[in-house]
Design brief:
Chains A, B: InterPro entries: HTH_LacI, LacI/GalR-like_sensor, Lambda_DNA-bd_dom_sf, Peripla_BP_I. Chains A, B: It holds the Pfam family Peripla_BP_3. Chains A, B: This is LacI family transcriptional regulator. Chains A, B: Keywords: DNA-binding, Transcription, Transcription regulation. The structure is a homodimer of 329-residue chains. Chain A has 329 residues and is of the alpha/beta class. Chain A folds into three domains: 44 residues, Orthogonal Bundle (434 Repressor (Amino-terminal Domain)), CATH 1.10.260; 125 residues, Rossmann fold, CATH 3.40.50; 133 residues, Response regulator (Rossmann fold, 3-Layer(aba) Sandwich). The first copy, chain A, is built from 13 helices and twelve strands. Chain A has a six-stranded parallel β-sheet, sandwiched between helices. In chain A, strands 7-6-8-9 form a four-stranded parallel β-sheet, sandwiched between helices. In chain A, strand 3, helix 7 and strand 4 form a beta-alpha-beta unit. In chain A, helix 6 packs parallel to helix 7 and helix 8 runs parallel beside helix 9. The first copy, chain A, is elongated, with a radius of gyration of 26 Å. At the A-B interface, helix 4, helix 5, strand 2, helix 6 and helix 11 of A face helix 4, helix 5, strand 2, helix 6 and helix 11 of B. Chain A binds a DNA duplex (30 and 30 nucleotides) through helix 2 and helix 4.
Chain lengths: 329, 329
DNA sequence: AATGGGTGTGTAATCGATTACACAAATGGA
DNA sequence: TCCATTTGTGTAATCGATTACACACCCATT
């Protein structure tokens, strides 16, 4: 491995000068600069980031903590993050909790030990140890998708999205609307979307029967099972529409409905949230809400970079959304 | 920031001993170990990976170079890689060429400067500068999806997959089979899959008309356009089936066919490759080939870890595949 | 009692960069 | 001509870990 010392020797300068050439700071004569560049080219010298980062306390790496990488939402977000940070010469250090909540904290500490310059977290839950770990890390930090008190958060407008969607279903004349959601550990998807739905129903003077609600775990299969359960436990008073909190679960639900010979939307209308690519190409195409995940990722990255430059921008940003009306309702 | 020196002082030992406790090597008395652990707990001390890596030349990070992160294949592969490496305490440093070939080389050098312990590359093309850069890097290296001479490669069996698929279409009685592919810069998808298709057709004594072939760029839209072109330029001698080299393009092609009132598979049969989730839920469900991307990622990671342990396993591994027969043909 | 190996701990060099500081030469304004 | 800047370069400390080496102690064996 060639080091800065080798370069210095070969170019007949001190390593100070080499460093100055490479980092473009301080005074360097044209002739010295040329000699150094020359040698660097010839040797294909690559500086050690470990050494640099040990000295400077900056690594040029930003850590990303995902609940699950192989997911459409996550990969879109990472795409958006990458687009922004790579332009500024940063790399992404990726960690994936595989849906184990406790790993979020573990990974924050791990990223910290790797001297990442900042962290973007896609949380799936909120709890005190987590907040404490973030506080401790003393690093630029962005939360995406969940609002974390005291942390710059980029959130989707889950509540109003759910309100709009529910309103739309009501406008279509439906009164008996079932609900397929996820557990309440997830404040965004589990709580806010449900609240948006429930509040709107209440406002319309409709009480949602307890057995019109069912809960899954984000998977297509769980959507299928939830739908099955709702249908089976409401043989004589069946809902005419179902509000599902994610596209994937909605797809699963549709699968069950189709199997059972329901016509969509005539016998049962259905809606999702998330604008998965699939939602457009499935038959019938799924009415859903686009959260612009990629933009959210980019936005998160931009805010993080701002924080890195010392601009203290602790704030909450609510991402906008778009209701995509299609054929399933 | 607390350092190893602080811990040493607080525990009344030398930093050597602290290091020994933390790395579990060398002799340490039970009492010293306890004192150190005690202090480590209390202070929440996190060792600096930069310093460690500067000294040891190992970073515990493996670099992954992707053509495009926000893609189902890529995110599945990364999921597989992550599952394996995270178990061994490694992290993933992610880079995304966004389909710019020249960035592959740039990123190899960049990862090198970051002292990654190894690299997994999902190449989309093969050329000499690339091979040279890999050679230069002198790092454990795995290529996934493309065979790179002299580099441990995990490849999908593109040729036989295409052969099997084509054979299957032929068995269904089709003779006029169109082809939607991608450019030949991509040896795996562009060349091998095409060769598998062409060879099989030839063997069956069928010549494929030039205007039954069309080429896209992996996107759904390009599949749509390719299909349109084939239909429009074959008004009086239309094919009865179309072999598409990726699921996404196949979905686009189906979209066009449906718009134009073709019944699938009665008027036109269609097949894809890749087993996108969507392929199962679209109507009609798409006959495709599962490449087990996640397993391929895991396998790549395992081979890389083997190489890291000095086992020189330079070889080529061909991943198996599975033909999924569904309703589109 | 002498010898030798197993234990336990510390000293100090080292990894490869950055940067504060010192110093010399060149430049320019009065 | 003289002094203050500006420009150019080098010396050496520093970042926070690992590890070769030295040393001391304890205990069992001869």
């Amino acid at each position: 491995m060639t080091t800065i010392n080798d370069i210095a020797k070969m170019a007949n300068v001190s390593r100070t000068t080499v460093s100055r050439v490479l980092n473009n700071n301080g005074y360097v004569s044209e002739s010295a600069r040329k000699r150094v560049m020359q040698v660097v080219e010839e040797t294909g010298y690559i500086p050690s980031v470990s050494a640099k980062s040990l000295r400077t306390k900056r690594s040029g790496v930003i850590g990303v903590i995902l609940p699950k990488i192989s997911t459409e939402t996550a990969s879109r977000v990472v795409g958006g993050i990458n687009e922004v940070v790579s332009k500024e010469g940063f790399q992404i250090l990726l960690t994936d909790t595989e849906l184990h909540h406790e790993k979020e904290i573990e990974y924050i500490r791990l990223l910290q030990s790797r001297h990442v310059d900042g962290i973007i977290l896609l949380a799936t839950n909120v709890n005190d140890p987590l907040l404490h770990a973030i506080e401790e890390a003393k690093l630029p930090f962005i939360s995406l998708g969940q609002e974390l008190p005291g942390v710059t958060s980029i959130v989707y407008d889950d509540y109003h999205a759910a309100v709009d969607m529910t309103t739309m279903i009501l406008q279509k004349g439906h009164k008996k609307i079932a609900y397929i959601g996820v557990g309440e550990e997830d404040p965004a998807v589990g709580v806010l979307r449900k609240k948006g739905f429930m509040d709107t129903m209440k406002k319309a003077g409709i009480t949602v029967e307890e057995n019109w609600c069912s809960y899954g775990d984000f998977s297509i299969e769980s959507g299928y099972e939830s739908m099955k359960q709702i249908i089976n436990s409401n043989r004589e008073n069946s809902p005419t529409a179902v509000f599902v909190v994610t596209d994937r679960m909605a797809i699963g639900a549709m699968e069950y409905l189709k199997e059972q010979g329901f016509r969509i939307p005539e016998d049962m209308a259905i809606t999702g949230i998330g604008a998965a690519v699939m939602s457009k190409y499935i038959t019938p195409s799924l009415t859903t809400i686009d959260y612009f995940n990629k933009d959210a990722g980019s936005k998160a990255a931009e805010l993080l970079l701002e924080q890195l430059q010392g601009k203290n921008t602790r704030k909450k940003i609510t991402q906008n959304y778009r209701l995509i009306k299609r054929d399933s309702v």
